[in-house]
Amino acid sequence: MNRGAEESFHDSFRSQLPRSVPPASVEELLGRAKSIEGMDLESVSARLGASLAGPTLRRKGKAGILLEHVLGASAGNAAIPDFPELGVELKTVPMDPAGKPRESTFVGTIDLTNADRDEWETSRTRAKLARVLFVPIISPDRGSPPSVCVVGRAVLFSPTPEQDAVLRDDFESAMGLIAIGKVELVRANLGRWMQVRPKAADSHVRTRAISDDEGWMTTNPRGFYLRARFVEAILRDPNAVPP
Known about the structure:
The chain is α+β, with helices and mostly antiparallel strands and 243 residues long. Helix content is 33%, strand content 17%.
């Protein structure tokens, strides 16, 4: 499915849902997350009079929209936290029954043209991670039907000073290479807890980046992702410092 068609499909799903009311406080947000803990996605959807039927790819997007709506996220596609009044970002985490995330967690797209000026303290990446509500979605297998995809225990995360220091190192290691035109050397094995991966619908999507001759080049868009092992650790203990 191309990006335009997928967005149209998701907009159609949103139109099925009743009006969403943002939570007035973090406590109310956590209460809403607690109220759906242990429920399968089909039941959550039915509560709102919507359907998650459809191909796996489409269901995945619809599941995220469903949880945004149930919890009251109001940012939509804007480059602000999902709960703007609370400064909280929402991340759903597909997990297996043993509690292991099935994939890394997207943080945000990297501005490859601004890497030589982007500082951790004022970066969008750090802002995105300042306050995150992680909501696990537990299922037996990838592509499981909504009737067996269960909402797990939500965890509100804000980096401790020690965690922030490691995330900063990961950020600066990647951005330092990008800033000197070495974006193609920034591979997924770089970074202790946060890695860089391509972020595009397909490999044909291109964007500008700094080249090593002080000019410009084109490459695939990139984004920062939290490694699965880090997310697994903080879902067990938000203050964890995993290896």
